[in-house]
Fold this sequence. Notes:
The protein is of the alpha+beta class and 109 residues long. Helix content is 25%, strand content 33%. The protein has helices at 19-25, 34-40, 50-62; strands spanning 4-8, 14-17, 68-72, 78-88, 91-101. A five-stranded antiparallel sheet has the order 2-1-5-4-3.
Amino acid sequence: LPVALVVVDRDLKVIYANDQMKRVLEHEPKEVDEKFLSHIERMGIKELNLEAFKNTILKLFTSKEPGIETIDLGKYAFMSSTKIVILREQGKQEVVVTAFRGERQAGKV
């Protein structure tokens, strides 16, 4: 299943992007912004705006309960996000992992 992954901090700075995401963006992303979202349109994701993305991330960071937020972005496309904690020598860092699944291409299941 081709899934593009991005890990962001509270300020939408990109901590990590997998190879699938880098191929879609054609560069190493620094933050999630309008340019980032315009590039993921190549995956068939056209219904996501920056405000909706920010609201989803903020909801996960402010929630006291663990959870997964999923936004349907088309017939087959979706975005699923969850908050995780990275433990480092300097302490812990909360981040949100987001997986993007684009629309299927014609003739593929």
